[in-house]
Amino acid sequence: MTRVREWIDRLRGTLRPRRSDGELEEELRLHFQLAAEEAQRRGESPSGAARTAAIEAGGVAQVMEALRDQRGFPWCRDLGRDLHYACRGLVRNPGLAVVAVASLALGIGANTAIFSLVNSLLLRALPVREPGQLVLVGSGTDSRIPYWSSEIWEQLQHRPQLFDGTVAWATARFDLSARGETQFVDGVWASDSYFDVLGVQAILGRTFSSADDQPGDTPRTPVAVVSYAFWQRYFDGAPSAIGRTVTLDRVGFTVIGVTPPDFFGTDVGQTFDVAVPLGFKPLTDGSQNGSRRPILVTIMARLRPGQTRDVATAALRGVQPQVRDATLPKGWPKQFLDRYLKDAFALVPAVTGNSTLRQQYQRPLLTIMVVGALVLLIACANVANLLLARATARRHEFSVRRAVGASRWRLVRQLLIESAVLAGLGTAVGLLIASWGSHVLVRQLAKQIADAGRNATTNRVFLDLSLDWRVLAFTTGVTAATALLFGLAPALRASLVAPVDALRQHTRGSAGDARAGLASGLVVAQVAFSLMLVVAAGLFARTLSSLTARPLGFDQTGVLLVDVDLGRAHLDPSERAALYQRARDAVSMLPGVANAAVAALPPIASRVIGQPIQSVSGGPSLPPTGRMSALNVVTPGWFDTLGTRLVAGRDFTDRDRLGTPPLVIVNETFVRVFTNGANPVGQTISIFLPGPPPPPMEIIGVAADAVYASSLRDTIEPTIYLPLAQCGEVWSRFLASMNLSVRPSGGSPAPLTRSVAAAILAVNPELSLTFRSLSSQIDASLTQERVLAQVAGFFGALALVLASLGLYGVTSYAVNRRRVEFGVRMALGATPGSVVGLVLARACTLVLLGLVIGATASVWASKFVALLLYGLEPRDPSTVVGAAALLAAVAGMAAWLPAMRASRIDPAVTLRSE
Amino acid sequence: MSTGGGPKADILQGTLDLMVLQILATLGPLHGYALAARLELVSKGVLKLNMGTLYPALMRLEQRGLLRGDWGVTDNNRKARFYGLTKAGRRELVAERAEWDRMVSILHALLHEG
Asked: Is A42 on the interface with B (CB under 8 A)?
């Protein structure tokens, strides 16, 4: 107990001493005087008495030191002194400080930025009650979380014994506009249980109650819960927002509540502006009778306290037959139903939420993280080199301090504190760089989705990048590790200085050579790491360029894409096809339009419609469940509009409609896969569809292969194209929105936007439209590759600069040290050229060694990025050789400057100064 | 506490606190020099405390709340800091003395047993 009091008092004494030095000294002086008086009383002379007192009582200065130690914490006081000294040292040497802090800031900043992305995408728990208890309902046959029919969720919901609650949701984009061009917000269709089961409370108003979403009935008033950000943006954070109305897809919804600022939904990588109960889906679909059709949802459940995932999985599988049986899709052939019934449920931990972005970006992010770590290592090597040079310059100071009694540990500690100050400053600046850099990265990713993902399932990219304990711990760890990495070697080296060195004037002993050896080792490491980074940059740049140069099978220039959404236009499914045809006709009539056509999916649409093929006449027989093919629905002229060649047969015409024999066009890959390459024109295709088997369709043409998938990397799939005019009721789910492609007769498509919009709205003013160009869509689909290439390129360039700085420093240092030697050599007749050769030979050895190590490491490491590459082998020799040549050239420059300086040494001056 | 030096200081280390507390308990508040003089007298000149041992010990005891130092005036009118026992100090003295007696009896038994 008293010990604790002592510590508290000492802590206080460290911060603000209760007893000042003067007071302590006064007390001691009195003691001393009394001792001296006593001695005088014993008969000594005044001077003798003072000496006796000094011997008996001790010196005031030493006692003061002991008292100060007792008053506070001695190490704390020393720390303060060392810090002060370190800062003074930095201010005295601003060049070194700036270079060191800048390279550390870049390294630490890059790492923190990337880590904060990794953290928010991969590590951070959902900001909800007990996220560890949440599980996602997955499939036993697929590691990705599938979208389930909302009927399955209803079945689970009706079995409350399974879980402590279940939620279902589907992301959506809602159109805020009343008519015309769309104005999208991110939305989520959520089950009424959503907020309650997650444990998210409204900060204003209320969240959903079960009365808001009654299955089967049309709910009384459409209600919506809005996010904090939307509340601020749209309602200026006014409390009166509760009860106000927002228009979503042309339906008015009453705002009933606002969610907390940190809640972004359950899809990591996205956020929501408005949440609407699932039960209102029929309303915005424009269905009059309000009947509830199943929609695709993600299902999450909360485990009961103490219930393990295994127990819950077993319980879920126990009811699986009934659940599956109750939700059998209607009209599908038996083969598919069997497969559906057998597919087992699985539960996946959902503490970090659900994310499709995670799967896509996990590998690129971890790659960037390694790249960032390499940059930091190079920066550390650079700073270590600078500190080594400075430590050499301070040898005299160190030996003096050793001579007057500083312990070796004391010197090491002093130098490590200087390193920590540098690392701390680097971190401070680095955090600024990090917060800027991570937002730039997210913006880059967001741009992709905003441009490319204009369909109903993809929303804006959103990542919560606020600092949390993980990021802070990471940055602190990185800072400490870097300080040790670059500070330890120079500190240990300095502590080896012998006290007697202070007495010598010219010390040119072995320590100097050892320092040069260590520095050379650092340069070799820098060159090796830099080569790895330059190789990575080269690989990613070439991947990007080979993707950009990939023949697409269509001509992207000038093509304008318009998403046409029926929205609230109440149209019978049978009238939909005709409406799109009329819109297309109206647009192709416009001046400046060469071609216009409608398709279900534009190229690179980031989604694909799969269609099982039952059989193709004249082709090999297929398995009982058929073989998958991609499917698109197009109008006549679509191939012309996109510039895709027909290699055989003919295009659809306006005469092909419902009632005439069903027709189909296939692509070249389809021919290879389904008819073994034989000309298929005239053959027929049978496909699986719900309901009565459709009549076989006759193949009338073969289109050239076109890249037409979610990304440019995907292989071309067999594809069938159906004519829109022949798509009856069974296809109506594709017909809620279509895409109109417009090829202008010349020049930019941008000026056409207004007239195209007017023409389409003249056909039906209820339609909602979204414009973009095909090339921007393709551009955006390359975001991942572009970001990787840019980041790797930036870091590669940075590494080159740092490595050449390092080489320059080491070579300059060597030249300075060998000044006299070079002077003597030149006095004895060596030419400037031979001196340059001497210097360069040494630098070349280091660079060559680094290149060999770096090339080996690159070849080894490249296999980890193989999946991110396209169109080249990971160990692509030309990239490695090219990178090595570039690095050698830059390194040559860096060594050339000091070499030239060496050749200009004036022998007379040097010899005289010696 | 290297300022004290020598084996004698090491012996004192464990018992100095007890001796200081006991002297102050007997004589009431004293300044540092008087305390040292008293100890020298009692020990018949064997224990000569130098300032480097005495004052850090006083500060430590004060930090632990066992002593309280106040500025006062000596008999011949000099300003000095007087140390007196606190309540906690008295309690500590009782406990320490009991502990000391126990140690002594154990040692006594050990040394004179056989």
From this structure: no
